[in-house]
Amino acid sequence: MENKLILNLRLEVEDQKKILSLMGLVLRKLKQLEFSDIKVEYFELRLHRLSQLSRNKEAYMKIDANNRTFTDSEISSKWDEAIMNPCERLRQRFLGCEKEVLVRV
User: Does the reported pTM lie above 0.90?
Assistant: First the structure.
């Protein structure tokens, strides 16, 4: 039986080609979570530019997986970094929780 995954995306990105590239990055990161044995049930991503005058972009993520929920965010001048950094931190937090559970048992 396959897991059900709910994606909640809110992308305020002007360049449509960039949106496709970012979606590819998100799918690769979701696969990486799956390969790490993190069973994602809900993935929320919000991308927006902080202001019209600023180059800084913000990514907010929320992931429900393995009966836990974690959130993280990043401000960066590049969309890719704004997505990759919090995604990796969240992966490490999930993996840390799993190790903690194994140590208790």
Answer: no
